[in-house]
Amino acid sequence: MARSLKPSLTVEQHVELLRRRGMSVDEGLALQWLSNVSYYRLSAYWYPARSMDPRNIRTDNFVQGARFRDVVDLYESDRKLRTLVHDGMERIEVTMRTRMGELLCVNGPLAYLEHDRFRPKFCHSDWMKVARKRIDLAARTNESVKHYKYEYADKYPFWVLAEVLDFADVSRLFEGLPARDQRCISEGLEIVPDLGQLSLNQQRKVKALPPLVRWMEQLTVVRNVCAHHGRLWNKKFTPAPTVALRTQREFNGLPEGQSERIFGALTVMAHLLRMASPGTSWPDKISQVINSDFLRNPLVDPAAMGLPNNWSGNF
Asked: What does the alpha-carbon distance between residue 254 and residue 242 come to, in Å, rounded to a whole number?
């Protein structure tokens, strides 16, 4: 039998509920935050402060010393991180569009229309349906799309199409490229695993599907979380393999096997942004937020972000 939904509470009732459960609450601060950021949204950030019962299950009560102010600080830290990640994703997306366009356009500006230009298992027709929808939607306001629609009989070179694709579209198209093209783009971004450190089976896997492909999948998820104002702290993402990347010095801090916490994505993003924008301050800004905001908060366990025990403190 389905359980009944909990009744809705007022902001004042939520403040009282938090106090009954053992949280120290500054009423003025709580009224401000709960009026503008919902109780439900904030609850993900006070989750670690909920006590454990003898069965190792979280209770509704809080551990001694739990403070609403720490919850607010953690929420703000996550918002800062999300803003920086979203900014970094923009530059990575533009870089991937550009490098894929250069490769595809070697055979002409419309080479992306040729299904045999991609892997046999790539559903090119489905991808093209999505691309067509992007074009149709953009045609209402995008002057470049309007121009090619009327002047070139609805034919769009890749460099025009690329401007209306989203990160997921770019990621899926990258996955559909033949391995040689994926390697070409990966190597241009200095992602070159040392095959000599891998077993023969691992070498075959890397040659068949370069690791950047799966990392683009994870970055797509991370990017979508940011776009929808979701939580990056203490969240698991689509796992991405680390065995091949760990053969490079830049990535040897990644966990063994696979990475599913935000630290892995930040590590890969930092590398890609250094390639796309030499001298970028983005890695330093991310390090600052982690060290000065997250790690000073009593609610934060470094493992919740995937930080290794021997992390240097810099990306």
From this structure: 7
In 3D space, the residue among 303, 205, 229, 221 whose CA is nearest the CA of residue 268 turns out to be 221
Domain with 28, as residue range(s), is 11-66
CA-CA distance, 233 to 38, in Å (whole number)? Answer: 18
Are the CB atoms for 236 and 264 separated by under 8 Å? no
Residues 49 and 116 grouped into a single domain: no
**143 lies in the same domain as 79:** yes
Structure tokens at 56: 């190792």
* Cα 304 from Cα 90, distance rounded (Å): 25
Co-location of 250 and 200 in the same domain: yes
Contact between residue 242 and residue 214 where contact means Cβ atoms under 8 Å apart: no
| Pair 238, 90 in one domain | yes
- Whether residues 26 and 55 share a domain: the answer is yes
Residue 52 sits at φ, ψ, to 5 deg, of -105, 145
The tokens 């979380």 sit on which residue?
225
Kindly report whether the global pTM for this prediction surpasses the value 0.70.
yes
Q: What is the pLDDT of residue 227?
A: 95
Which pLDDT does position 5 carry in this prediction?
84
Strands (E), the chain: 50-52, 58-62, 240-241, 258-259
Contacts of 72 (CB under 8 A, 6+ apart): 29, 33
The pLDDT value given to residue 247:
98
Distance of CA 175 to the CA centre of its chain: 17
Mean pLDDT in each 10-residue stretch from start to end of the chain (315 residues)?
A: 85 97 97 96 97 94 97 98 98 97 96 96 97 95 93 94 97 98 98 97 97 98 96 96 97 96 98 97 98 97 94 93
> Residues near 53 by Cβ (< 8 Å), separated by ≥ 6?
59
